[in-house]
Amino acid sequence: MNYSILDFLCLIGAVGLFLYGMKVMSEGLQKAAGDRLRNILSAMTRNRFTGTLTGFAITALIQSSSASTVMVVSFVNAGLMTLAQSMAVIFGANVGTTFTAWIIALFGFKVNISVFVLPLIGLSIPLLFSKKGRTKSIGEFLIGFAFLFMGLDMISAYVPDLQSNPEMFAFLRQYASLGFTSILIFLAVGILLTMVIQSSAATFAITLIMCTKGWITFDLACALVLGSNIGTTITPILASLSGNVAAKRTAMGHLLFNLLGTIWCVCIFVPFCELASWLTDEIGCGNPTALYTFVNGLEHSNPELYNHLFDNSLPAGHDVLVKIAAMQLSVSFGLSIFHTIFNLVNLSIMIWFTKLYVKIVERLIPAKHKEDEEFTLKYISGGLLSSSELNIAQAEKEMAVYAERVGRMLDMAQDLVHTKGQTEEFDVLYSRIEKYEDISDRMEIEIANFLNLTAEGRLSNESKLHVAAMLNIVSEIESIADSCLGVGKILLRKQQSHAEFNKEIYDNIDTMFTYVRDAMSMMTKMLHNVENTTDYQINASYNKEREINNVRNTMRNANVENINSKHYEYQAGIYYMDIISDLERTGDYIINVVETIKDQFHKVRTQVR
Q: What value does the mean pLDDT take over residues 232-247?
């Protein structure tokens, strides 16, 4: 086999075309769907059964379980899909991958992808020049779809031609007569082979060639196909390396599904193969075990004819060629039936244990329990899909986490009010608030930079409004953090002047904290589902803001009377009112966020309806 540097560079280029096609297709689809993508995904994965059907349909359509599971990992990484939802889709994807095996069994290897790829590009080009953004996005999706399959076709052309050089696997023949040990050996070969070529379909094709040569029996061919189920999980595992913990758990769930399925299948491997062989014979496709017996008998009884058979020197229509072709079809159908039954039975068993799967992968890949003071972004990362629409979803999730983290500062500020000044406990708590405020500044910068980069991509009009609104929201949340630190600074000044608060002041400050904390909780809850806020939530937030203002006014008026009547010192009243005013400003920042949600997200959602 001659494989030059140029061939390798062409392979790299083909992979590049495949990845670029996947990127363009994904971005085009998301821009065409816009904000409805999240609703579509939610509808498709509403329960484990619809999720399974979704995984099956997507994998059957694109004929790649690796590609579909990588997409699922990407959605989980972006926070668009939960771990439980992703498990159901992955279960379906494993069944969907058998669709490719059936295509090979029915149509062989002579499917010319370029027959429909080039006309598809020709039809897509005019759409790119449309004035309508949605039509242009559909054109991008179709071109990306064409590039993706063109890349797959070229990868097949430039990958080392293992199918035409089966002698590379001839050494395996000596391990084909070791009983159950042979099954385990060929299972491992199937895993490694699929990991290297990253295509269970290619492994299926190579397996069929090895059967045709008479090197391995039907049961060992089934072992190779079984191993390919585990080998194909390497692609989403590699894709998850740059993702968050949820993405890694999704990839692990895919591996676990195939690994546990393989274990139970190996335990009943012989009767399972016999079942596949019997079904193949019963549907009229012949006995798949007959090919090995025939070819080996031919090799021993007529070596010259055997050699002519595999150097392609026999004339077309020769009786042996016709018989071999029929037996090849039988083996191909037998392997497809084995693969399909395995995945269907595995799905039927595992789908009932989805929640258990989630618990297992959470145990295998625990979350990194870092201190709250560590600066980490939960959802925003390098990402697996550089898509502006998906980036918006990531930013929305991160924005809610940001609000939660800043919300903790309110509790710290209230605790600080009740902590005795000029003590180590006060200093430690004040330093913690300072650190949180520093983290808040950095999170604002990171999220804002991420949104600015997102804005550079092509977005729908709704998404452009979303980006502008989120930039405003993160700015307001950072101001809330500043206000919490502001309470601490007021308390420092109070210490320096040796002013003292009485019980009435402490009770009033606690009352104000309660109102502001309730408002903050309402705002955070809205941010967790920002595109589905209700009128009730918005009205409740406005009512809470009015209550905060009324409480501030009442306390301010009472403060003048209390100072005049010597309930507490004038200096104490000044610092008391400074804290109340600071908390009232916090309420203003909160209602600013609510107004942005009402004017942009809530308004856009109504328009989409």
A: 71
d(CA 583, CA 254): 49
Q: Which residues neighbour 254 within 8 Å (Cβ) at sequence distance 6 or greater? A: 69, 90, 233, 236, 237
**Structural contact between residues 139 and 120, judged by C-beta atoms closer than 8 angstroms:** no
Collapse the DSSP code of 105 into the 3-class scheme (helix H, G, I; strand E, B; otherwise coil) and give the result. helix
Inter-residue contact 37 to 45 (CB < 8 Å): no
pLDDT tens sequence across 510-541: 999 999 999 999 999 999 888 788 889 999 99
Q: Which two structure tokens, joined as six digits, stand for 313?
A: 């020197």
Q: Where are the beta strands (DSSP E) in 196-346?
A: none
Helix axes 319-350, 83-96, angle to 10 degrees: 160
Q: Are 605 and 469 in contact (CB under 8 A)?
A: no
Q: Which long-range contacts (CB under 8 A, 24 or more apart) does 346-353 make?
A: 346/94, 346/257, 346/261, 346/264, 346/265, 347/52, 347/91, 347/92, 347/94, 347/95, 349/261, 349/264, 350/91, 350/257, 350/260, 350/261, 351/48, 351/49, 351/52, 351/88, 351/91
C-alpha dist (Å) from residue 138 to 54, 103, 172: 21, 28, 48
Instruction: State the pTM of this model.
Output: 0.55
Pick the closest to residue 467 from 596, 607, 587 (CA basis).
596
